[in-house]
Specification:
Oligomer: single chain
Strand content: 15-25%
Low-confidence stretches: 294-300
Mean pLDDT: 92
Radius of gyration: 19 Å
Length: 300
Amino acid sequence: MQYLIYLIFRWTAFLFSLIPFRVVYMISDMAYLVVYHLVRYRRAIVYRNLKNSFPEKTEAEIAEVTRKFYHHFCDVMLESIKVYTMPDKEVVKRYLMKDSAELDRFAEDGRPGICVAGHYNNWEWGGIASESQIRHRGIGFYKPLSNHYIDAFVAKNRARGRNRVASIEQTHQTFKQYEDYPSLFLMIADQSPPQPRMVHWVTFMNQETAVLTGPERYARMFDYPVFYAHVVKLKRGYYDLQFILLCEHPKDAKAGEITAKYMNALETQIRENPAYYLWSHRRWKHKRPAGNPETRKTKD
């Protein structure tokens, strides 16, 4: 069964390689009608997340953000399939990385770095687009898929040129493996932790939020500078990414400071354009246990 699903996936990816983006977005518009109106995919979760995050918004405003979110969500899902067969030049044209001089400065010194991103705008294209646009070697972490055939295909296509991908289960080994190379470790860390242990608590989007501490932990361990991937959607299928330095010397930072800066940068973007965040995730399913250290506000 796994191989059959893999063949269907490969056939779909092949079909997407033949159709232009304008057709991709026609399909996305139809998918929106199904996902939003018929299937009503996670509508209750999206509504609750938005309502708790924006208590000041009216029901009409929440409904408008919801509709825009599902349109964008369908776009990103189809863009994620399309990218596997896109030429590198096309990826760069549609996902331009700007103002990387500060990041390049560390590469010239042979110093690795960490880039944290969130599930905001298109988070799937960044690793592939970075290969020819930054001087570091990009090392992306991902959660292995249950279908081994699809997992191998996805991993191979994400690791273009100098770039590499690694399982989140091999994070520590990967940091050790590439510590002597000018590598940029690409980490998405805004998802809900599997267990509310070894986490840092912040006030994020008006709610107490458990945050994974991996990026900060490894930054402090190796003293790697930390950047935030500030991704802006220009229009359908076109994005700009700017690297924003959050901390140059993590060993000198206070515990939780880097995590708070990261979540603050993400929240600022979300509040500017709420529809581009992944509201369908059960982001706030954990509650802070009694006796846990005081929650840190992202605005600190």
